[in-house]
Write a structure and sequence with these properties.
single chain, 5 helices, alpha+beta, extended, two-stranded antiparallel sheet
């Protein structure tokens, strides 16, 4: 099939190399702050237990009681099952820029409940770990 070789489309490999070279030049011209931010997003900082700072706090725990507590400077978070108090304190300091005074951690065990649709089937609720973060008076965390 050597006859059809002149009619084949040229490969896109040279075009990709040129685009990659242009991208590398653009990255070199970028300010140092942008590259540092990209590096933090790309490679999360690992703590002693092997968790990243962004993995420790799963999400804010929003209920009526927790919103009442937040008015007094106590915030509730769902945390990773292996997270410890020092790791939670470090995560709150780095993500929310406030220093916690005290942290209370509790495990909520799984519960077996009847299904509302059919009384005979049983549904299992998941277990989770919850942390209450006490802040100094005047410090606040904005939870959307």
């Amino acid at each position: 099939m050597a006859i059809l070789d002149p009619f084949k489309k040229k490969s896109a490999a040279p075009a990709k190399k040129e685009a990659a070279a242009k991208g590398a030049k653009a990255d070199k011209a970028a300010p140092a702050t942008e590259t540092a931010e990209k590096a933090l997003v790309a490679a999360p900082v690992r703590m002693e237990g092997g968790l990243a700072i962004t993995e420790v706090l799963v999400r804010p725990y929003v209920t009526e009681r927790s919103t009442d507590l937040s008015e007094r400077g106590v915030y509730a978070f769902l945390v990773h099952n292996r997270a410890t108090k020092p790791q939670i304190a470090l995560a709150v300091r780095t993500l929310y820029k406030v220093t916690p005074e005290k942290i209370a951690v509790m495990r909520v065990h799984a519960k077996m409940m009847k299904n509302r649709k059919s009384n005979q089937s049983v549904v299992k609720r998941h277990a989770y770990k919850k942390a209450l973060v006490y802040l100094k008076s005047g410090d606040k965390i904005e939870v959307v």
